[in-house]
Design goal:
single chain; mainly beta; about 55% strand
Length: about 200
Amino acid sequence: MTWTLGRVALQVAGTTVRVFDDRQVYAEPADFAAPPDGDRRTDAGVPRVSTVVRITPAEGSTGLALRFGVALPTTDNYVGLDRDQTDFYSLVVGRIGRDAWSVSGELGMGIYGTRDPVNEQVDPLLFGLRATYDLGPVAAELELAGHHDTRAGPEFRGNEDLGEGRLGLRFGEDRWLSVAVVRGWTPTSPDLGLRVRVGRRF
């Protein structure tokens, strides 16, 4: 959900519930996480609270903004679906539009907590790119997004590099439905998936 007041917008987003079936083990769980036993794991998702500050005027085909916020921690580390850590992120966002086309991108950095007692945080590079062809009732959307830890050395569990592409269609304007195919390009991103979202503008 997003609330807008002038040049500032407050956004609350995230995942409500995560459900995971233990089918295959590729590594031992991190300390204090429950070992795999074949049962289904269920835990609360990670909510994100962010602020977007528009720098350029709303009029015109180009725009520039700043986005920063936090990802709140899960309740504990035992379930093992995410980390009981608070993450901070900050990005610069730009947009160019012409007729039905619009292209936007964002680039920034994060400060993410780890489960490693020696290296308690990583500072990954965050990136996103989005292209939209909007015909009103129907829009085609292509997105690339992820984060990359520029530090040399092995990846930390729970802070692995992520990257995925999403190609889909959005139907409707005030009330909308979005369906997209998701394909990851890093080992810990989804191989292939389907994302379905519904929403309403007030």
